[in-house]
Amino acid sequence: MEDIQNKIKKLIEEIEKHNRLYYDLDAPKIEDSAYDAMMQELLALEAKYPQWADPNSPTQRVGGTVSSAFEKVHFTSPKLSLSNAFSAEDLRSFDTRIKKTIATPLYCLENKYDGLTVVLDYEDGLFVRGATRGDGETGEDVTVNLKTIPQIPLRLAEPVTLQVRGEVYLSKLGFQHLNRQREAEDQPLFANPRNAAAGSIRQLDSSLTASRPLKIFVFNLEYCADRQFESQREVFEFLEHCGFVVSPALYSSDMEEILSEINRMETSGRQELPYEIDGMVIKINDLAQREVLGSTSRSPRWAIAYKFSPEQVTTHLESITLQVGRTGVLTPVAELQPVIVSGSTVSRATLHNEDYISERDIRIGDKVLLQKAGDVIPEVVKPLVDERDGSETLFEMPGHCPVCGQEVYRVPGEAATKCFNFNCPAQVFGRIVHFASRDAMNIDGLGPAIVRQLLEKGFITNVADLYHLSDQREAMTQLDKLGEKSVDNLLSAIETSKTRGLAKVVYALGIPLVGVRSAAVLAEHFKTIDALMAASHDALTEIYDIGEKMAYQIIDFFQTDSNRDLIERLRKEGLVFTVEEEATTGDALKGKTIVITGTLPTMGRREATELLQTHGAKVTGSVSKKTDYVLAGENAGSKADKARELGIPIISEDEMYEMIEE
What is the C-alpha to C-alpha distance for residues 280 and 107, in angstroms, rounded to an integer? Predict the structure, then answer.
C-alpha cells in the first residue's frame, strides 16, 4: 500500500512539472498523449484509493463542483486601487511629487492587464483560498473556480504562507476561440476579454470555468510570513521561484525612459502582445520607500496607472436604425460591419441625434473612423470622405415612431426628435428599467431581459405594478432564467426598494433633465414629495444646480395627470417620500460646502459626492462666496477659475483624503 501512496505522490510531482513547462514556459517536453496517460492513471488511483487523494492534486483542476452562492471574504488589509494618469505631463507630475520625498527613485514599469483582479492565499505552500477583489475590503470566495486555472500553482516550490494579487485574463486567441464556440452553440457573445474572464470566474459550475482558457499574471505580494524583501524586483524573483507567472517589468530611474517605453507600447507594442492591456503601471521599486510614501484611503502614493488613449479603427457603416428611449427621444444608431476595437467586437454605436449626423456629414454606406470613448463606449469619430464612391445615402429622421407608429416631432430649440405617446412600448420599457436601476430604486435582479419578459407576459404595465408581482409568484417561476429562488430574491429586492428614500424616488421617476445629483439636491431642499410637487418656478431656480430648463421640466412633469396618479399609487405601496437623515462616518468636513469640478484621478463625481457627504460636507454645484473648497480634477474649467477669483481654496483628491484622515 505504501507503494501506491508513493506512486500517487510521484505522479502528482511529474504532472505538476509538465504543467509548468507547458502553461508557464511554453516549452513542453512530452507529447499530449503521454501527459494524458499520466493524468488518467492518477485519476484511477485516486478513485480507487481516496484515503490518499491530495486535495491539491492536478486532477482537481477539471472542475465540476456546483455552488449555489459565493461566500464573502473579508480582507485583513485593503486592496487599494491606483490613481490614474492620462498624459505624459501627469506622469512627470507624479515623478516630481515622488522626488520631493525620494531623491532618486527607481521605478518598476508593468503592463496594466484588462482582466479580473483576484487575491490568492497559501498556507505552508498549499493553495487554500482565492477571492475576487470586490470593493477592496470584501470579495467573493471563488477558490474552486480558480483551481481550474493551470497557471495558478496548487502547491508552491517552498512551504511558505503568503498572499498574492493577480489578474485573471483571456488571451486574444482564447477570447476569439471562446466566442466562436459560443456562436456555434447559439449563445450570446462576450463583449470583450475582461467580461469573459470575469464571467468565467463567477460561474456557479466550475466545470464551465475549467472549459475556458483562462490565464493569470501575479503582480503583487500582499504579505509573506517570516520573509523580508527589499524591492519589487526581489519579490518577482521569489514569486517566480515559487511557481507563479509574474508580470514582465522594466526598471528605470529615468521618467523619460519610462515615457518612451509607454509610448512604444501604446503605439505598437500592445498590438504585438498575445493578451490585451489598457495601460501601464508605474511603481516605486524599493519597498521601504513605499512605506515612507504611504497611501490615501483609496490608493497608494507610490504607484500610478497610465491609461492608453482610445484605439481607432475603420469600418463600414451599413445602416442607421432608431432606438426609442424612456423619454420618447429617437436616437439614431450606427449599424456597423463588426470590427475589433480596444479588445472587443463592435457592431453598433450611437449617433446621438439628427444634428450630430448632419454636422459630421455621416452617410449610410460610409467608411468611418471608430473608437471607444474611455475604452468603453463605441463612437463614430468621423466619415472617411475621400473613400466615398457615390453609393452613400443621406439619413432622414422618420415622421413616425418606429415602435408605436405615432407621429414624432422635433422639440423646438433642441436637437431631439420625440415620440410623445406616453404608452409607447419602448418608453414604458425604458421607464421601468430606469426605475429599477442602481442609481434609482436599485432593484437587484430586475434587468432589461426580465423587464421585457414581465411586460410581454402582461404581469406589469408600469412601475407601480412591480409592487404587486408577489401575486404572480408561481407564474413568474416559469419565465426564462427565473427559478423559485431567483423569483423570491427578486420579490425581496422589490420590497426592500420601498425604503430607498426621497432622493432615489425623485431620480427613479425619470423627470427629464433631473439626474442623480439634481434629485438629491431637490430632496434635500424640499424634504417631501408633496413640497416638491407644489414648488413654483422661482422656488426651484433659487436652488443651486436647478436651472431654467430643468425647473420647467419638473413643473411640467408634476402637472401631468398620469405622473401624479403614478405617484399616488407608489405612495399607497409604501415608498418613502420623505428625506431621512443620512448616516455619516465622521465629521471631518462638517459644515463645509464643497464644489466638485473636473475629472478626478480615481473616482467618479457620484462616488466623490457620497464620500464627502458621509464625512459631513455639503456638496453643491455652483461656486459662490459660501463655498469653502473646490475639489478639482483634470480639466477643472470655469468653476476653478471662479474659485481663484473669490479666493476659495482649490484642493486635489489627495488633499481631500488627507483632510478626511486628519
Answer: 12
